Amino acid sequence: MDSGTASAGIQDAPLPACVPLGRGSKTPRCSAAAAAAQARCSTKCPLTLEVPTFNAESKPQHLSWADLLPDILGVVSGRLPRVEDRARMRLVCRSWHASSRLHRRPPPPPPLPLLVLSNFLFSSFGADGALTGTRRVPLPAGELASGDVRCVGSFEGWLVAAQLQPNANCLSGDIGCFLMNFFSWEIIHLPPPPPDTPLAEACSRSLPVINGSGAVDCTVHAKCLMSFHKVILSSSPDSASSCVVAAFSFHMLTPKLALWRPGMTSWCVCDGSCITAFSDIAFYQGKLYMFSMLDLDIFSFEISEDDSGLIVSRIEHCVMEKLPKPNGTYIRRSKIVEWHGKLLLVVPFFTGAECWQNIRKIGVFEVDLSPNPARFIEINSLDGDCIFISPCSSKPFCVSQYDGGEDDLLYFIDSCIFPRRNAPHYDKFVYSMKDGTVVPFAAAISEKNLQVPDGRPMYPTWLFPSE
């Protein structure tokens, strides 16, 4: 579609998954019930329900809120799409809190994702499909005292934070990185970049790129400055040592890929020609895949362990067929996402300046790596899912679990260059795979919340709570 098909008068996109509302209501019924119950009930739930029951002698009795059956509470919880509403429900009383923790079959669907901005403000979906105003994620005081903190990634209920020195500029590099659980505040510190490590302690290897040109140098205890741009996790850090952390650093125009797992005292830092044209990274079937905007290349990194910890053991250039694209368009801001065991490439095609009004089409392609050359296979439906895309986190979400959910939508929030000012700008839009329409969303999030004082762009991330 061309820019004329965008609906400029629509302020917010459809809610990806919603609870059916009563006529004229702007709050989900279950959400309102939980909030009202919380307001009325104390910790011990002394209040009674208005509906009487009768014993064997036909004397009326009243049940307390705490006596609601766990199965009923499970149904109510499953009808609350927002994580805040589920938290309010658990706070009503001890009985409701305990019931919410019981193993229920089937378990309630996960709540809708949250949008976390780089400065740890976050926003959630309201009943009308709009993202609400921002609230701040509470950070532990000790982490705030160590310097400027910004969000650079997420995984399930975990956020990834990078730290700058106090009052440092964007040239200083980061002094640390840590993982924080959004709900429990648990902190896992990752090793800082080691600019002062003696080179004698470094352990490095150079690997040629299979089916490609050049090589990648991988060094543990590398002496370098890093500015974390995007950090991803292979699994939850709760899963002991199986979690692998991959970080893309872009400092002083020098891109690097860094790897870490629990137990390592330093990062394994990789640099090479294929990393220079970085566009996106994702874990898929035990490997790390990197998409390069230059020539639309895809590289796979096999990761193994030696005495130094994690190390890259093989790098392969995945030879691809030519990506089909509409005439007169160019490609920017493509993302790779795992979806139901498949590796997807999400590609916006632009006809003019890099902004949502000039999107001709967004193609979603399955990357079939089995043949040689590998193929891009376009898909036209997400089978009940939407995909939420941001610079630091992209993931599908099953909206068909909720009544009234609209699927086959791509929720984008990503940076571009503002055409008139040549300055960083953020596009916030939703693309429908069904009819190719593009509409804006997140109108309540102002541009000032997407910039930091020294003008560096901020990188929002979608957070996907599991409960």
Summarize the structure.
The chain has 467 residues and is mostly beta strands.
Description of the structure:
Pfam families: Beta-prop_KIB1-4. InterPro entries: KIB1-4_b-propeller. This is KIB1-4 beta-propeller domain-containing protein. It comes from Eragrostis curvula (weeping love grass). Residues 134-431 form the KIB1-4 beta-propeller domain. This protein is mostly beta strands. The chain has three domains: 65-103, Monooxygenase; 139-319, no CATH class; 322-451, no CATH class. The chain has six helices and 30 strands. It has helices spanning 29-40, 70-78, 83-90, 94-101, 141-145, 273-276; strands at residues 48-54, 60-64, 114-116, 121-123, 135-136, 148-155, 158-164, 174-181, 187-190, 203-210, 215-220, 228-233, 245-251, 254-260, 268-272, 278-284, 287-292, 297-306, 309-318, 330-331, 335-339, 342-350, 359-368, 375-378, 385-389, 394-398, 409-417, 424-432, 438-440, 461-463. Strands 12-13-14-15-11-10-19-18-17-16 form a ten-stranded mixed beta sheet. Strands 20, 21, 22, 23 and 24 form a five-stranded antiparallel beta sheet that branches. Strands 26-25-27-28-29 form a five-stranded mixed beta sheet, with no helix packed on it. β18 and β19 form a beta hairpin. The longest helix has 12 residues, at 29-40. The radius of gyration is 24 Å and the shape is globular. The relative contact order is 0.14. Mean pLDDT is 76; it is low at 1-15, 17-52 and 417-422.
